[in-house]
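Appendix B. One record, verbatim.
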Amino acid sequence: MSNPVTVGLNIRKAANGRSEKLGLLPRGAVVEIGERSADGKWGKIVAVSDGAIAPVQQGQPVDPAASTGWVYLGELDPEPPEPEAFDTLVAPDKPVPIKSGDIVGHLGEYQDVEDARPVASRGVRPLLHFEIFSSDDVRAFIGKCRTYAKTLPVGPDFHLVIEPGAKLVQPSAPTTSIEAGAMVAPQGDANKAGAYVRVKRVSKQVATRSSLGAYTTATKTYANGAVFTGWYVGATDDLRTQSESEATKKGYARREVLAPTGNAVWAARADLPAPGAPAAAAIPAWTDYPLKPANGKDEVGLTRVVSRGELDAVAPIDRAVDPDGKRWWRLHALSTSTDPEKWTIQGWVCEKDHPKVTWQSPWAWPGFDFMEEDQLKNVDMLSTHLLRSGAAETGEAADFKMRADKVDQSALSTKLHEYIDVNHDNILDAQELQQAYRQPLLAQPLTRIIARYESEWGGEMAKWNELDPLMLDDRADWETEKQRIDKLRWWPKAAEKVKEFKADPTVYHIHPIGLIHNFYGAKKAAGCCEITVELIEKVFHKSGTWFNGKGGGKAFEDSFKTNYPDVYQFDKARFIEMLNAALERWEITECYQKAHFLAQSYHECARFETTIEFASGNGYNPGVHKDAEKNGNTEPGDGPKYRGRGLIQLTWKNNYRAYGAAVSKDFVTNYEDIAKDMYNSIDASCWYWRKHGTIQKKHDAKGDINKLIAAEKDNVALITLAVNGGSNGLPERIQHFNAIKAEWKLT
């Protein structure tokens, strides 16, 4: 195992670049500089206030003279200047230009009352308070946006919008069946993807190659609809091979095929037997496509907006393409039911000709709704809380009831009742709020409320003084709290110091998550560290088809073609699309994260040539590998079963079990599915990257390779150790990473 490479700044004996190296100042170290060189380019270290000097050569002692050596000042970041003031708002005389990606601040340390107790539940933690607000003209602005959006053609940034009243589709009842013992094969383009596939009954036949017509590699079909089984046949049926080169050499002119008979029907892909195998039981089937908008059943209660990136991340079994080429997705939505157990519904939606399901531009601001709340006061809210919690004093109930009615009839409560008030009694009780918290689909419509109300950072102190009579025994603490609140009221200072800043703190508040999802969704900014087919071909000099099984020898190539037909020569564009969707799904989205993932996975799967390890896997059997049993390989034969599969070769039974548990699938039994299905090959690798890397303690990674990158973004050796458990192929991995880094101009 190689030692991690220390990245840092050379410390030299004299003030020039040719002088002897005394040590390395690691990235992130903080030093105090004293004497400067005559040309002002070099500085002499006085003290190292943060970090430790590393040796020039790994494993060697640090030269004592390094603590007072010379460093090149151009490679040091200057210490930030002292703030102009503390605990107040500062308005620069000149606006400060900020470019995309610039650091504008650091997370502050937060500690609430509960965490400040002797036995804190969490302690101090970094926290960011982030608000987006706008003046009154935002209504008109969004209105103009929506008018403009109607002129736009559907594009890659559009969202699929499921509006209230839309009905999720369920497949129609089967109209026929395929009998047990029958063999079937997909017809035409229907076998490419999707939950439902058009098939015909087939029988095994041997035919001359010339009689079959043109051959399509992607679908393994001939012009007459026959499906190639992979067997090349000679003059007699017993002369056969699955090696194309051997067949050519021996002049085998016939092919074993599955010849179609009868009428085509539709069947669920999950119900079909393996190619060439008979059905173990009768298979439900349809003469017509089973998904139709007219089959809508469960009604949607709240708008759901689904980005392209989220649709790309939908599992293949929950996607379909009908005979007209229209795409379908099986999704969850919130229903109109008043029963919390029936809030979530699942069904199919179609991108076209499905009532109340449309493609909409982000500029249409789909799902966003305005809500104005300028009548409620703090005293109304607290009085309502005291009344509902039974804390009202004698004589207060009548006044509190009046204020509670005001709260319940307010615009804010009306909107929340629309979403949460299950029993429609105009009261949001604790049970209803708890049920809402457990409903993640409710988060989206809540984040798309644009609410107009007075900011907590502004307004007069009178609204807080109104609470004085309600504080009773806590009055002294309350007076101290009001002093804190008064210091936090920065809005008046901003109105005074910032030109054209709105003096009235009653503004429209836009939820940051809702805004970001609308304009960025689950997709990356185009052109920023973008993984494309062109990138792979350029930086890796990768030409021709991908996933051919090359690198493991001729026998492996033939075996890969035969045993893994759904990933063999997988469509490059579709692979990149699925890879990008998975990276978004698992939040491997920053440039350095993607660069490392791409470099590691490209090496691990033999330069995008295989989804299964070349070796037999016998080396992972118990009694052969010293770590076999502790990794779950306890039985002879477990080694081959749980050998490396996926882009980042997932290995060991325990890892197969853990990944299966994470995605609710059984990969211990169906271990081959990780190599046979490109979705699983990619997804398992992303899961491993975020959840199961080999490094636990360093940088408190706990298996998350992203944390290692955040700490040491250029340390390929460290990332390789987390992926591979060692340093296999490290030079090539470094080469791949540096090529991507150079292409993306990462610094």
